[in-house]
Design brief:
The chain is an all-alpha fold and 212 residues long. Helix content is 73%, strand content 0%. The protein has one domain. α1 packs across α6, α5 runs antiparallel to α6 and α7 packs across α8.
Length: 212
């Protein structure tokens, strides 16, 4: 729960998280427009302004519970020339945008460490949080459970091999996700952490050279 963190950590984390979420949603809207659907653009979602994307309840949940959400980007597949493929592109744009941000942050960190520039502990800490949060957001959203982006990205693939599983993940996804999150909150074991951390560690090492 973020509100339990020290004030100095919150000062770093909250703006980083707000930007990461806003960029993520902006990427969905941008890709939808590129694929022919301007619904999100007309509703002001083709913007990096956090106020266009952040959901009040979702933001409070991040502070008090440790997870939350932004406003879903409205998409009308009727406007796509190839709805199945274009929906996958729109869904993937969100996690991809966070990985691009993390990769950029990783390049800056490597340059700073290699050239000895701006050796400020605060600057390095901000960069670390920026990279870690963006990687975590990307990995989390790639989980193939509704309403996460992964359900749109991998849904068709799963339905071809196991239609019943695909239907259950779509139908019961939100309940499954909530249950998994609650287990991590009330017990010492986090299923999400177990699933996500190998990928988070891999990308952190690839982008920054830091292993933990």
């Amino acid at each position: 729960m973020l509100f339990r963190l020290p004030l100095e950590a919150l000062v770093l984390l909250i703006p980083t998280l707000m930007f990461a979420l806003s960029f993520h949603e902006f990427a969905h809207a941008w890709m939808a427009a590129k694929c022919g659907d301007t619904t999100a653009a007309r509703m002001g979602r083709l913007s990096l302004n956090p106020m266009a994307h952040l959901d009040m309840m979702g933001s409070l949940m991040i502070l008090f519970v440790g997870f939350g959400w932004a406003k879903p980007v409205p998409v009308n597949p009727i406007n796509f020339s190839n709805p199945r493929i274009d929906m996958m592109k729109v869904a993937f744009a969100g996690p991809a945008s966070n990985l691009i941000l993390a990769f950029t942050g990783g390049l800056i960190m490597r340059l700073v460490n290699t050239l000895g520039l701006l050796q400020s502990e605060m600057f390095i800490q901000i960069l670390y949080f920026f990279i870690f949060i963006n990687i975590s957001l990307a990995v989390f959203n790639m989980i193939p459970v509704a309403p996460l982006d992964g359900s749109q990205i991998f849904g068709n693939m799963i339905s071809k091999n196991n239609p019943e599983l695909a239907w259950k993940l779509q139908m019961y996804g939100p309940k499954i996700l909530m249950g998994v999150i609650l287990i991590g909150m009330v017990t010492p074991f986090s299923i999400l952490g177990f699933l996500m951390m190998p990928f988070v560690k891999m990308f952190m090492y690839l982008f920054t050279g830091i292993s933990f």
